[in-house]
Specification:
The chain is α/β, with parallel strands linked by helices. It has a single domain, classed as Vaccinia Virus protein VP39 (Rossmann fold, 3-Layer(aba) Sandwich), CATH 3.40.50.150. The chain has seven helices and nine strands; from the N terminus they run E-E-H-H-H-E-H-E-H-E-E-H-E-H-E-E. The protein has a seven-stranded mixed β-sheet. It is globular, with a radius of gyration of 17 Å. The protein starts with 11 loop residues before the first strand and ends with a strand.
């Protein structure tokens, strides 16, 4: 007998999230502490199996807010890589952008679909994408974005390749991460050879803790 999907074994609760003038109600995992505790206890050993989609990451909130401040042309197409819960892409869809939300994890995709449907985001579509095994053509987008994409140095090259493949020649990529994410050093070293990169440091307080996040804005050289 096949094991039921993880998402069907977790209790979900509606959580309102407001960024700027937009308010969404997202189904989120009620108790993520056991997953976070395992990550703290096992460190790198747990990274391979950690379900990143269960958490609303601070960097995703920061990135969505940052993009909301840019007054982007609503006709610009958006691709969110490694979307997880899909916070960034859903807020962009709610603001009027045609958005494609992607992830490789089936549970993440199932949760995104529930939340897209829950918020009637007709301009958002969901697609499975594994940047370690990408399709021959992933399409071109005006904006490519993602939060907390590079947790291991081995992720740097395939993430960068996905951005190169998917970004229009005059497009812009926006990548956000916790300032402590040292695996981003390798990514930025490689990306700096291909892109002009601007950096913006921002902070957010969630669950009583202040987190420092960096947003990188990348345009082709």
């Amino acid at each position: 007998m096949n094991e039921p999907p993880m998402i069907d074994k977790l209790n979900l609760e509606p959580s309102p999230i407001r960024i700027g003038d937009i308010r969404l109600e997202l189904l989120t995992v009620e108790n993520i502490e056991p997953f976070l505790s395992e990550l703290e206890d096992k460190g790198d050993e747990a990274l391979q199996s950690f379900p990143y989609w269960i958490k609303v990451w601070e960097s995703a909130i920061i990135l969505a807010a940052h993009l909301a401040e840019q007054s982007l042309d609503k006709n610009k197409t958006v691709l969110e890589l490694g979307a997880g819960m899909g916070v960034v892409g859903m807020f962009l869809a709610a603001s009027g952008h045609p958005v494609t939300l992607t992830d490789y994890n089936d549970d993440a995709l199932a949760l995104m679909k529930r939340n897209v449907d829950r918020n009637n985001l007709s301009s958002a579509r969901i697609q499975k994408l594994d940047w370690n095994d990408p399709p021959r053509s992933m399409g071109k987008y005006d904006i490519v974005c993602g939060a907390e994409l590079v947790y291991r140095q081995t992720d740097a090259e395939p993430v960068l390749q996905a951005i190169r493949e998917c970004l229009e020649p005059d497009g812009t990529a926006y990548i956000a991460h916790n300032i402590r994410q040292i695996s981003m050093i390798e990514f930025l070293a490689q990306a700096g050879k291909l892109f002009d990169i601007a950096h913006a440091g921002k902070s957010i307080t969630m669950d009583g803790k202040k987190k420092q996040v960096v947003v990188h804005t990348m345009g082709r050289l």
